[in-house]
Amino acid sequence: MRILSIVESRRFAVFVLAASLLGGCAWFRRAPEREAPGGVPEQVVVEPGRYIVAPERGADVVAELRVVPPTQTPEIADGIDIAADQGRMNAKSLVRIGTGCHRDADAAARDWVLRMAQSHGAEKVLVYVLPAEAKASAKLAAEMTAACAMPTGPEPAALVATYYVRFKLPFGAQFRNLTADEKHKLGVGGGVEIGKVIDGTPAAAANLRNGDFVLKLNGTAVRDLNDFRQMLRTNMGRRVTLTISRDGVQVDRMVRLGVLAAETRESNK
User: Fold this and answer.
1) How many CB atoms sit inside 10 A of residue 68's CB?
2) How many domains does the chain contain in total?
3) The domain boundary residue, chosen from 149, 166, 183
4) How far is the C-alpha of 137 from the C-alpha of 128, rounded, in Å?
């Protein structure tokens, strides 16, 4: 039997020690943490601000209708009157996509406003805080409270922000389904009523008004809101004829529909 030299013995000892350490690494690994049954879940940090998405202005809709890509440097300015300011924004084809409500009105709150604008792709943001003058703040305070209202009731906020994106609207007006009584009076089976018409849009150019009833598009009867939306989408970029009822009289209106941002000029010539 061969006797190991001192040098070889030392090498062998080092090898054994290294092997034992490598083999035992699993003991030093941190076992994956598991939550015990019935354990208390981790607490979620709640933002002091809340962003409310405007009706039918979800991320997919905004991405489809916007004219230009989102920017990381949205324009942020102080607002004066929420309702009046929205009218001015609509006149520039800027559509409100959401509302931000924050319990504070400090620099941190304004930083939050910017983050929300970047997150939701807003191009323009108007910020509202109550002025020191009591009389001037009364109307704005009511508007701010209403803007932040929840199903559970009003939630006052120290700062409110309204977020806007420029849409290339195919039509440019709000509309709703007709009620059963309205259908009966008009003697039709369906249609939609025009609501607010946005300045500078195809609907405005065709002199459509709040309260007009749209009964047909290119001679085809409009069944309901969803049917009218599909008709508009199918005819984007084209001139169509709307048959409307205004004050009990049926008239035709020619409308050159716009196109969505995803459409190119070449494909709609």
Assistant:
1) 11
2) 2
3) 166
4) 10
d(CA 83, CA 147): 10
User: Does residue 210 sit in the same domain as residue 237?
Assistant: yes
Give me the helices (H) in the chain, please: 6-23, 25-28, 59-65, 82-91, 107-120, 134-147, 180-186, 202-205, 225-234
Amino acid 200: pLDDT = 73
The phi, psi pair for 26, rounded to 5°, reads -60, -25
Q: Is the residue at 2 inside a domain? A: no
Whole-model pTM: value is 0.55
Residue-level length of the chain: 269
Residue that is last in its domain, among 136, 166, 196: 166
Same domain, 162 and 177: no
Range of the domain at 148: 49-166
Q: What would the two tokens of residue 70 be?
A: 């989102």
Please classify residue 217 by burial: count the beta carbons closer than 10 Å to its beta carbon, then call 0-12 exposed, 13-18 middle and 19+ buried: buried
Q: pLDDT tens digits for 212-234?
A: 999 999 999 999 999 999 999 89
Are 152 and 204 part of one and the same domain? no
Which residue bears the tokens 């003697």?
187
What token pair was written down for 233?
A: 């989408």
Give a yes or no: residue 154 inside a domain.
Answer: yes
Residue with tokens 């406003």: 113
Q: Looking at the structure, do residues 113 and 221 belong to the same domain, yes or no?
A: no
Q: pLDDT tens, 92-133?
A: 878 899 999 999 999 999 999 999 999 999 999 999 998 876
95, 164 Cβ separation under 8 angstroms: yes
